[in-house]
Structure formats: structure tokens, C-alpha cells
């Protein structure tokens, strides 16, 4: 008998659709404890704490549910601390740590465990994470950082087999040519690493490195696969040639430098880095290709597993790659409607396993960014992707969650990026939104190109042109977004600033659905709110540049110095020229400098003299430079350019007084050569410049040794030193400084010329704190662009462009 009743539709209870994040608590407790105590405290106390946690966990587990939750936290904490203690004990076994403390010269055998990382220009001795103990090794063009797992060390009459990680900082050309997994021998001078660093010692070579045996087996095959992918993309446009291998296997070796800078400025670097979101995109692309070619659903997980293993091998299984692979696998759960609820437990397990495998990941910003991005994908990727999919055509609708991955990653990672940059990017979300439609196709086709290139490079090269089109779109978005005005605004780099931004981000994500709903009902009101918000966000900068009354402009030349002092009527004194001509040329054009009455070169590092040719395009009367011609190749290049332009070049010495029109300057350094620290840095010309009633202290790149000499000279001639109103902070805010020099500055304006996202750690947090503790108002070119000092009734103020 028919009753006419409709079939009953079973709806899953709401609680079964929610994400269970309770298992994340133990991981989030263990993480900071390992980072800030487990890797820094006395090893014996760490062992005791690990044992105590495990004993307490066993007792708590006998209680009811609440006790079991406490037991889980204690068990994970004990496991993580025990792993940290074990790793520390293994790494410190053997004589390397003692030899490093004695700064001994040793012969070592080992394996290269990370590709050489070139560092342009001067790195100084203040690299975060251990280079500070490099035994005074100055930096110069051609500097490379190479991580070596030492297996045997011979020194001070003893030999030992060890398993100790060492960071080599070298200017020796042969070190830049070693490859990952090469077996090498070398003679090194060891120096102690920073406490809590992921290496036991920092070393400078005493001669060339010798490769005993190159990488073989599967590692050699991986290098062949990378090479074939590069060959397949060799004929593409420059941006695509760099981006396709970068998005597929994290190979950024051919990305144009200006595109790298643009992606960094617009928050797009996570697309090309080997990150969790990058791996998620690759795996999602493999899954989509599998479905497209008809692979059965039950065989897709094994295919994905093989793809993940191949990715790790080809991208090289360094700790950062393994971490990214694990996080990417968890992130893939976020894109799955059926397995999404398993994501938070999987993320918790991944964090714990990675901390046990490598406790030093707990101190890595990359690990933190990857974990937070993965959590963001678990919470936001599926709902955002489903909303986007409604607007996509049928065949590509399943890619909706994939397309939102870069946007989600940018939104949730912004609070963690703030302590690194001190600013909030206004264009990052816009750039990620605009780039998102191109990321999926580039990655999907790029994966197909990589697979095909193993069999046939010519055929893969044809397919690569399909990947080149969306890749060029990513490059175009990055370059266009980087050129937008007011692309970022200062936010602060303190923990409080990060917490505040995190709170605003969470509130924004919570309110966004309601705001979207209201905006659809009242679009006029919504448009008015957007216009008002945009208007209030525009900085109140001057419309004309440079501002009236300017006396000094600190040009935003990237990681380097380029200073311009006004001498009137389109004339100027220029102090240093930045690392490359284009940025310096642009700054001088914006200011309207037609003639340079004096070009001062504080020292010959490339980040201070690289743009000399741009200045010499104008009428230059004279060049005055440091008498220490080091590095000699840069000094010789400058001399050739000066001769070619017919400009005389002379030296500046401590005690000289220089007059250029209404500008007066006193030279305080160099008086002699200092062999300690970085010789070129400590040979920097240090000036006090007197212009329009203000005194500016331009400190070059002096380190603590030369700063002490400047301090001594200033106290011998207090009348000549005078009242200093503005400080150009030495060495881009390096931690290698003498704080007593800061106390000799009467004014409270400090200007830092530094490149955005530089990998030197400039400006150092300790230097910023020292300035803040003394009440300085700090301005930075990486956050604010060109900075102009304006004389206003005898007082100095800063206007940013």
C-alpha cells in the first residue's frame, strides 16, 4: 500500500561535520617548549623533564576522560623533549664542539646535505642561526653557505668518526660548485655556533674543497630528472622558464632576480618555494590528472603516494622538503570532502612526528608558516573552494578548492610574516587572488611536463608552452602588483603586533560571511564602506617628491646604501650607490638630480658601489672613497668606470673637512686598516654632514671595532662632533655594533637602508631593540620606500615616499 510519504533523508549530525581540533593541543604545547627550552637548556635537565612528563602521563592516563587529555599532552611533551635530548646528545658526540670552541683548524670528511646557497654582497658576521661564530670571517661577493654532515674529523693530533652538522661559510669558488650529496674533504677553521642552532659549528675553509665521490643511485637519477625538466622549459619566456620548474619541484635556479623581488614584495613566494601549500597543489594536480586519464579511484592514493615520493626525491629530501611533503599530504585532506575531518588529527600527528624527527624545526619560521598554512587549508580551503566552484565551468569545477590554496595560505600566514618584515602587505591578498587562476594550470601542466620529460624532452618541450602561458600570468601579476603605490604599511615586528594582526584576521574571517550576505542585500552601502576604508588606508604622503625642505634622501635601493644630500638647484652629494644601477637611477630621477658635486663611496662592497654607473651618467665633479681597496675587484671596477667617465677619484681620511656649497662634512673614519671582523666594513667612511642647520651621522657599514674608534675620536673633539640630529644606522641594522655610538646621537631619528626580505637577518631584532630602548624613531626603506629628511625650523622629520 502506497502511503505517499517522501523518502526520509538522513542528515549527518552537525557535530559530525565539525573539525575536531582537540588533538592539536598536545602538539601546540610541545612545540614552544622544545623550541625555547628543550634546545637551549642544560641537556641533563631536558632528560629529567622528559622522564618526568612520561611518568606523569602514565599516572594521568588511569583517570577518566579529562585525565586522558592531560595524559596526552604530557606524553607528547615527554616524547618531544626526549627526542630533542637524544638528537642533541648524538650531534654533540665527538670532538667537533670542543674543537669549535678552540677555533681549531681541522681536516674533515663529510657529505653535502644542502645545495650551496649564494649570498650576494656583504653578509657580515651577524647571520642569525650561527654565522656569528664564524671566527671573524668577513663576507664578500661570491659568498656561499654550505651545510655539511661531517663523518670524520682530524685535528689537534686526534681523529674521530662523528655525525655532526657544520655550516661552511666560504668565498672559495670551489665550494659554490659542490652539489647535494657529494662526498667531500676539506680543511676548515671551526668556530662555535649559536646556542640552539641546528649546526654544531660554523667553519671557514682553508683552501679548496675536494669532491671524493658525487651523489649516486636514486639521487643521481633525481638530478637527471631536474635537468630534463629544465631542458624541457629552456625555450620558454624568462618568467615561465623560471616559474614552471619552481612550481613543480621548487627549482628556483632560473627565476629572474627582479621577478623574485616582485614575488617577495607581493606575498607570492610561497608559490615557488617547496612549501606545504606547494606540495598540496602538486598532489592535487596529480589526482586531477589521474581522474582525467581514467585511473580508478582505488588506485589514486597509491599513485599519489608514488608522486609524493618522487617529488621528495627530485626536490631533494632536505629537512625543509620532507616537512613540506608531510604538510602537503595533510593539506590534501583539506581538499577532500570525504576525508577533511581527518585533517586536524593528521596535522597534529605530523607536527609531533616532525618535531621528533628534527627538533630544530620547532625554531624554523618555515615550519611554522607551513603548519599554519596547512591548518588554514583544513578550515577554509573546502568552503571557499566550493563557493568559487559555483562560478567555474563544469570541466574545471573540481579545481575550485585548488585555486583558493594560495589565497588561504596568504591570509592565515600574514600574522607570522609580520615579525619578519614589520609590515603588512596591502597587495598580497589581491596578488594571490589575481594569481590563483594561473597557479593551478601551471602546476597541473607542469607536472605533466615533468613526467613526460623523463621519457622525451622534445615532446615535453612542446607541452611546456601550455604551462608557459599561465606561468607568464603569474609573473605579470607579481610585477604589476609590486609596482602599485602603498603596497604595504608599517605594522611593527613585535609579538604584540603579530597577536593583534592574528586577532584582526580571525575577526575578519568570522565576520566575512555576514558582511558578504549584507553586501548582496545592500550593495550601495557596501560600496560606500569599501570606498571609505580604502580612503582611510591611503597614507598621507606628499603628492610631490622630494618634499619641500628636504636635506637628505635615503633611496630604497634594496639591500644596500644610496644616500643623496641636497646642495641646491638640482645638484647633490651622493653617498654610495646601492647594489645595481636601475634603483639608483630611478631614485636620482625622482629627486631631479642633474649634477653630482661629490660622490662618496664609503667602502667597496657591491651593495654600496654596484650602481656607480648610474651616477656617472650625470655630471659628476669628483669621487672620494675609502683608502682600503677591498674587495680589490670592485675597487678596480670603480676605478675603470671613473676613468672612462673622466671623473677624478681620491681618498678620504679621518680628520678631513669637506665643503660642497652649503654642505659641510667632517670625516671621522677610516684612520687605519682594521684586520679584525670584516676588513671592508671596518674601512667604511664615517661622516657627520652639516646641512640647513641639521647634522647627519652617516655610519657606513662599520662594525663594532671601527665604531669604537669613531667613538674615541668623537670624544677627543666634542666641539667638532656637535649635535647629531639624524643617524643613518650602520650596516643595514646589523647586530655587529657598538651601542655606545648610539648614545652619542642627540636626535632621535634613525634611518635603516635595508632590502625587503633579505636573508641576512637585517635589521637585527637586537639592533632594533637597542634603538627603541633609546627612544629612537626608526624608519626603514624596506617598509617605507624612499625616506626624506626634512629640515623644519631647525628640527628634523622624516617623510616617506
Shape verdict: globular
The profile of the biggest β sheet is: 9 strands, mixed
Helical content class: 40-55%
How far from one another are the termini? 82 Å
Number of discrete helical segments: 30
Number of strands: 25
Calculate the mean pLDDT score and round it: 82
Protein name: ComEC/Rec2 family competence protein
Keywords: Cell membrane, Membrane, Transmembrane, Transmembrane helix
Transmembrane segments: 21-39, 45-61, 70-90, 367-384, 396-418, 424-452, 459-482, 494-516, 525-545
Domain Metallo-beta-lactamase: 559-731
Describe the structure in your own words.
This protein has 801 residues and is an alpha/beta fold. It has 5 domains: 16-92; 96-215, Nucleic acid-binding proteins (OB fold (Dihydrolipoamide Acetyltransferase, E2P)), CATH 2.40.50.140; 219-493, no CATH class; 505-537, no CATH class; 550-800, Metallo-beta-lactamase, Chain A (4-Layer Sandwich). Helix content is 49%, strand content 17%. Strands 10, 11, 12, 13, 14, 15, 16, 24 and 25 form a 9-stranded mixed beta sheet that branches. The protein has a 7-stranded mixed beta sheet with strand order 17-18-19-20-21-22-23. Strand 10 and strand 11 (563-568) form a beta hairpin. Helix 6 packs across helix 11 (300-315), helix 7 packs across helix 17 (427-455) and helix 10 packs across helix 11. The longest helix is centred in the middle third of the chain and has 29 residues, at 427-455. The radius of gyration is 29 Å and the shape is globular. The model is unreliable at 1-16, 120-141 and 529-543 (pLDDT under 50).
Amino acid at each position: 500500500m502506497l502511503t505517499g510519504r517522501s523518502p526520509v533523508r538522513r542528515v549527518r549530525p552537525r557535530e559530525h561535520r565539525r573539525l575536531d581540533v582537540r588533538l592539536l593541543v598536545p602538539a601546540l604545547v610541545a612545540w614552544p617548549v622544545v623550541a625555547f627550552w628543550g634546545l637551549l637548556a642544560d641537556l641533563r635537565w631536558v632528560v629529567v623533564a622528559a622522564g618526568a612528563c612520561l611518568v606523569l602521563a602514565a599516572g594521568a592516563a588511569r583517570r577518566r576522560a579529562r585525565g586522558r587529555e592531560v595524559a596526552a599532552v604530557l606524553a607528547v611533551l615527554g616524547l618531544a623533549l626526549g627526542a630533542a635530548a637524544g638528537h642533541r646528545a648524538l650531534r654533540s658526540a665527538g670532538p667537533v664542539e670542543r674543537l669549535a670552541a678552540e677555533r681549531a683548524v681541522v681536516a674533515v670528511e663529510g657529505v653535502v646535505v644542502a645545495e650551496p646557497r649564494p649570498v650576494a654582497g656583504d653578509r657580515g658576521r651577524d647571520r642569525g642561526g650561527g654565522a656569528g661564530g664564524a671566527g671573524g670571517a668577513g663576507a664578500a661577493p661570491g659568498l656561499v653557505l654550505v651545510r655539511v654532515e661531517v663523518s670524520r674529523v682530524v685535528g689537534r693530533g686526534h681523529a674521530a668518526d662523528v655525525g655532526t652538522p657544520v655550516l661552511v661559510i666560504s668565498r672559495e669558488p670551489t665550494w659554490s660548485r659542490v652539489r647535494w650529496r657529494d662526498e667531500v674533504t676539506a680543511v676548515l677553521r671551526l668556530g662555535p655556533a649559536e646556542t640552539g642552532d641546528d649546526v654544531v659549528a660554523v667553519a671557514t675553509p682553508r683552501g679548496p674543497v675536494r669532491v671524493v665521490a658525487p651523489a649516486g643511485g636514486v639521487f643521481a637519477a633525481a638530478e637527471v630528472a631536474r635537468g630534463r625538466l629544465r631542458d624541457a622549459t629552456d625555450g620558454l619566456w624568462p618568467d615561465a622558464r623560471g616559474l614552471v620548474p619552481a612550481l613543480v619541484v621548487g627549482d628556483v635556479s632560473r627565476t629572474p632576480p627582479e621577478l623574485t623581488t616582485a614575488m617577495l614584495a607581493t606575498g607570492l613566494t610561497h608559490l615557488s618555494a617547496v612549501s606545504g601549500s606547494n606540495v598540496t597543489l602538486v598532489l592535487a594536480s596529480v589526482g586531477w590528472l589521474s581522474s582525467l586519464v581514467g585511473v580508478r579511484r582505488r588506485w589514486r592514493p597509491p599513485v599519489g603516494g608514488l608522486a609524493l615520493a618522487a617529488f621528495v626525491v627530485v626536490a631533494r629530501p632536505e629537512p625543509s622538503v620532507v616537512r613540506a611533503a608531510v604538510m602537503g599530504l595533510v593539506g590534501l585532506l583539506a581538499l577532500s570532502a570525504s576525508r577533511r575531518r581527518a585533517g586536524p588529527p593528521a596535522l597534529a600527528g605530523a607536527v609531533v612526528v616532525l618535531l621528533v624527527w628534527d627538533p630544530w624545526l620547532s625554531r624554523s619560521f618555515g615550519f611554522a608558516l607551513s603548519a599554519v598554512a596547512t591548518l588554514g587549508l583544513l578550515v577554509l580551503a573546502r568552503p571557499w573552494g566550493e563557493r568559487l566552484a559555483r562560478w567555474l565551468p563544469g570541466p574545471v569545477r573540481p579545481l575550485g578548492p585548488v585555486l583558493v590554496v594560495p589565497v588561504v595560505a596568504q591570509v592565515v600566514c600574514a600574522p607570522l610574516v609580520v615579525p619578519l618584515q614589520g609590515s603588512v602587505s596591502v597587495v598580497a591578498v589581491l596578488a594571490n587572488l589575481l594569481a590563483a587562476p594561473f597557479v593551478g594550470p601551471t602546476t597541473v601542466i607542469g607536472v605533466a611536463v615533468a613526467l613526460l620529460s623523463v621519457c622525451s624532452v622534445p615532446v615535453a618541450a612542446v607541452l611546456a608552452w601550455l604551462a608557459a602561458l599561465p606561468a607568464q600570468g603569474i609573473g605579470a601579476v607579481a610585477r604589476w602588483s609590486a609596482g602599485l603605490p602603498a603596497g604595504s604599511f608599517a605594522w611593527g615586528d613585535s609579538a604584540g603586533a603579530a597577536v593583534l594582526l592574528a586577532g584582526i584576521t580571525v575577526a575578519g574571517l568570522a565576520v566575512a560571511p555576514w558582511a558578504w550576505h549584507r553586501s548582496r542585500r545592500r550593495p550601495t552601502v557596501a560600496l560606500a564602506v569599501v570606498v571609505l576604508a580604502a580612503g582611510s588606508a591611503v597614507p598621507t604622503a606628499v603628492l610631490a617628491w622630494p618634499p619641500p625642505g628636504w636635506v637628505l634622501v635615503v633611496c630604497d635601493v634594496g639591500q644596500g646604501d644610496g644616500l643623496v644630500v641636497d646642495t641646491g638647484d638640482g645638484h647633490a652629494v651622493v653617498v654610495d650607490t646601492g647594489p645595481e644601477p636601475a634603483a639608483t637611477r630611478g631614485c636620482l630621477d625622482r629627486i631631479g638630480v642633474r649634477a653630482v658635486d661629490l660622490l662618496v663611496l664609503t667602502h667597496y662592497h657591491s651593495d654600496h658601489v654596484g650602481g656607480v654607473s648610474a651616477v656617472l651618467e650625470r655630471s659628476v665633479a669628483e669621487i672620494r672613497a675609502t683608502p682600503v681597496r677591498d674587495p680589490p675587484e670592485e675597487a678596480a671596477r670603480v676605478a675603470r668606470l671613473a676613468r672612462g667617465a673622466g671623473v677624478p677619484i681620491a681618498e678620504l681620511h679621518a680628520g678631513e673637512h669637506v665643503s660642497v656649497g652649503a654642505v659641510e662634512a667632517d670625516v671621522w673614519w677610516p684612520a687605519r686598516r682594521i684586520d679584525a671582523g670584516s676588513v671592508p666594513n671596518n674601512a667604511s667612511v664615517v661622516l657627520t654632514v652639516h646641512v640647513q642647520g641639521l647634522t647627519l651621522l652617516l655610519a657606513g657599514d662599520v662594525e663594532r671595532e671601527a665604531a669604537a674608534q669613531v667613538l674615541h675620536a668623537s670624544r677627543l673633539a666634542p666641539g667638532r662632533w656637535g649635535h647629531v640630529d639624524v643617524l643613518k644606522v650602520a650596516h643595514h641594522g646589523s647586530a655587529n655594533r657598538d651601542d655606545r655610538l648610539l648614545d652619542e646621537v642627540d636626535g632621535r631619528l634613525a634611518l635603516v637602508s635595508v632590502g625587503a626580505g633579505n636573508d641576512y637577518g637585517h635589521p637585527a631584532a637586537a639592533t632594533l631593540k637597542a634603538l627603541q630602548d633609546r627612544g629612537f624613531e626608526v624608519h626603514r626603506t624596506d617598509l617605507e620606500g624612499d625616506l626624506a629628511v626634512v629640515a623644519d625650523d631647525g628640527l628634523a622629520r622624516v617623510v616617506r615616499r
